[in-house]
Design goal:
The complex is a heterodimer of chains A (about 290) and B (about 140).
Chain A (H helix, E strand, L loop, with lengths): L18 H4 L8 E11 L5 E12 L4 E14 L2 E16 L6 E12 L6 E2 L2 E2 L10 E12 L2 E13 L26 E8 L1 E2 L5 E12 L4 E3 L5 E3 L5 E13 L4 E12 L12 E10 L1
Antiparallel strand pairs in A: 1-2, 1-17, 2-3, 3-4, 4-5, 5-8, 6-7, 8-9, 9-10, 10-12, 11-12, 12-15, 13-14, 15-16, 16-17
Chain B lengths: L1 H15 L2 E2 L20 E7 L5 E10 L2 E11 L5 E6 L7 E6 L5 E3 L11 E6 L4 E7 L1 E2 L1
Antiparallel strand pairs in B: 2-3, 2-9, 2-10, 3-4, 4-7, 5-6, 5-8, 8-9
The chains are: A mainly beta (about 290), B mainly beta (about 140).
Protein name (chain B): Electron transfer DM13
InterPro entries (chain B): DM13_domain (IPR019545)
Amino acid sequence: MFSNSFSQGCSDAGICSIGNSFQTTDKELKNGIEIGSIFGTGEADVTYISPYITYTRTINEQLSLSSKITYSVARGSFGERGAFGDAYLIGNYNWKPKTNTQWSSLVGFKIPFTSSNLKINEFSLPLDYQSSLGTFDFIAGLNLNYKKWDFNTAVQIPVFNNNKNSYFKEFSNTDDFPSTNLLERKSDALFRTTYTFQTANKKFTFKPNVLFIYHLGEDSFENAFGQRETIKNSDGLTINGNIIGAYAINVKNSIELSLATPFVVREVRPDGLTRGFTAGIIYKVSF
Amino acid sequence: MKKIVFALSIILLILSCEVEGDLTRDIELSSPITENTPPIATGNFMPTSGIKVSGSAKIYLNGNQNEVRLENFSISSGPDLKVYLSKNATPTNFVNLGNLTSSTVYSIPTQVNVSSYKYVLIHCQQYSHLFAVAQLSQN
C-alpha cells in the first residue's frame, strides 16, 4: 500500500492519489483506515494544510471499495479559509495474477462538498483558497504491476460542473491569480511510474515515482460582461517527482512520509492546484 | 433513528469545521465624490417575489470613473449577491460590478457606455435568482 501527495496539476489531489486505490489492504485483514495530512506551498504566498481520511473495505481477493474525505485550509495574503473538500468513492478490481504481472482497474466518483465559492468577509476568493473545484467527476484507471515496477494510467472527467466561484482579479488589487468566475474545467489524464524497494528486514519501503498529468483542454470562465472566455495556456503537461518512505511498525500499522515537487508545470494554472512543494505524513492501520 | 442521529452528527461536523479568518488584503476604495455633483441617472429598487428591498441606485461620474452608488439601500440577505449594470430588466446582457457588500460604491469599467444600460440589478449568481431591479432614468 502507498499513498501519494503530489504537488501540481491534480484535480483536488484526486487523480494524484489514485494509485492508492489500486492497492488493496492485506488479504487477511478486510478493513483499512488511512489518515494523512499534507503541507504544501502554493501560488504567491499561499500555504496549505490538507488532512484526509480513507476507509478501504476488501470484499474479496479481487474487489475492494474505498471512500475518502478531504479537508483543506489555505493561508495567504487574503487571509485564512478552510472547509471540507470532496468525497471519493472508488471501486478497485484486481485481475487474475500472472507470473510477475498483476493488472488492476478502478472506477469511481468525486463528489464536492462546496461549490468553490468560499469567501472571506463577503470577498470572493480565487480557486487557490477553495477546498474543492466544485465538480462532480468520473474517475477511471488501470494499473500494471511488474516485479518491482508499477505503471498506472487514469482519467478524471468532470461530468457535472457545480463551480460557482465568483473571483475577479479586477476587483482584487493583485494579478497573482487569474479570474475564475464560474470556472469550467477540462479533464485530466495521468500516467505514473513507480519503483519499489524494501530493506532486507522489510521494515522500510521506498517508492520513488514520477507522475505525468496532461490537462486535456483550456479552462474557461465567465467575464464581467457575462461572456465565456477561454483561459489561454491553461492546458498542457505537468511532471511531478515524488519520493515515499514507509516504516512498517508491525503487520497492521505503518507510517509514511512523502515529499513531492513539480519539474514541469502548465503556463497558467487557474484551478489553484499548484504546489511548489508538498510534504505529507500518513498513518495506516489494517484490521 | 440511530441513522438519523449519525447523519445529523456528520452534517454538523462538516459545517462546524469551516474556518474563515479576516480579510487581510486591502481592497481599493473609491474616492469620495464632490458634494452637489448631480447623478447621470437614478432609479429606485423594486423587489422580485419574496424579497424585501429599499433604496436607490445612482450613476455618477467621479473624475474619469463612472460609478454606481447605492443610497439608503437595504435588501433581504442572499448567499452570493452581485451588482449588475444591465441593458435589460433580467440578467441577460450585463456588466458584473462585483459582490454586493457593505460598500455603497461600485466602479463601472471605463469601456462601458453607461447610457446604453438602463437597469441596476441585484442578482444571486450562485443560485441564479434575481433579487431586485432599479430602472434608471437619465437626469
